[in-house]
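To the wet lab folks,

You asked to see what we're planning to order before we commit. Fair enough. Below is the target structure as tokens, and below that is the sequence we designed to fit it. If anything looks off to you, flag it before the synthesis order goes out.
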């Protein structure tokens, strides 16, 4: 059976474990260690811009990886759960939380297929998960599930990769006009979302929009109110930037039992 296009992350986490790396950012050389993760500055800003009524809000990170975001939130007094599709990532995450004396509840799960408990969380954080979800159907399912899992008045913090005219993806990556990044692979037939380009096989890897309005429209269509957003430009030439947003779920936009297919589709 073919793997889903995003299930290749498990192989990367296995390699990461073999190399003794503690986080995705460390593995890619983007951070010095587990606690110096790339999303840290965004989370610090988002904490200042958000207001929680509970002294110990309940947070969920989707796409938690090895857990640096979860550990950061737990250290700030949140009750934290983390979910990732990679079993190896969850094993590492549990180990890292224990090493820091932090209580985080982790689980293996697929936000495109698994249902989240409705109106449970004060905060859901996108741990660089959504830009790994390509198809419109999958993105609608994920965003609808996240929205319905947040309590009225709760928050959704997201950070997604964003391209511009100068962004490059090396010799093995092609960003098409719909914002899908295709990455060349050696063995065809492994994944459910592959295509041939100039005789080579590529798998869909990222959804990377070029315009912030596309992010905002998608979030609004899913039932979120975007209360703050910014474009974060990369300091390195050719590297993608990111779109960052703080969203809220208003009482009027919570629709118990709403179908994930009710949102306007994206390509």
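Sequence we intend to order:
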């Amino acid at each position: 059976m073919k793997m889903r296009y995003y299930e290749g992350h498990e192989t990367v986490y296995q390699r990461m474990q073999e190399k003794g790396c503690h986080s995705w950012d460390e593995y890619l050389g983007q951070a010095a260690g587990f606690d110096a993760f790339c999303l840290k500055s965004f989370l610090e800003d988002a904490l200042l811009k958000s207001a929680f009524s509970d002294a110990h809000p309940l947070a969920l990170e989707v796409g938690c990886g090895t857990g640096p975001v979860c550990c950061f939130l737990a250290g700030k007094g949140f009750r934290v759960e983390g979910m990732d599709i990679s079993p190896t990532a969850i094993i590492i995450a549990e180990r890292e939380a224990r090493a820091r004396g932090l209580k985080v509840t982790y689980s293996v799960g697929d936000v495109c297929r698994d249902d989240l408990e409705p109106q449970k969380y004060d905060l859901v954080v996108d741990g660089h998960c959504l830009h790994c979800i390509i198809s419109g159907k999958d993105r609608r399912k994920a965003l609808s599930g996240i929205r319905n899992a947040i309590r009225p008045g709760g928050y959704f913090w997201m950070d997604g990769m964003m391209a511009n005219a100068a962004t490059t993806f090396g010799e093995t990556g092609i960003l098409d006009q719909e914002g899908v990044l295709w990455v060349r692979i050696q063995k065809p037939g492994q994944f459910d979302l592959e295509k041939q380009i100039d005789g080579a096989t590529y798998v869909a890897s990222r959804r990377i929009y070029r315009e912030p309005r596309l992010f905002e429209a998608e979030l609004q269509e899913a039932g979120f109110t975007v209360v703050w957003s910014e474009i974060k430009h990369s300091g390195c030439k050719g590297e993608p930037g990111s779109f960052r947003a703080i969203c809220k779920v208003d009482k009027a936009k919570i629709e118990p039992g709403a179908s994930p297919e009710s949102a306007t589709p994206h390509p």
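Structural context that might help your review: The two ends are 25 Å apart (CA to CA). The mean pLDDT is 92.

Thanks,
Computational group
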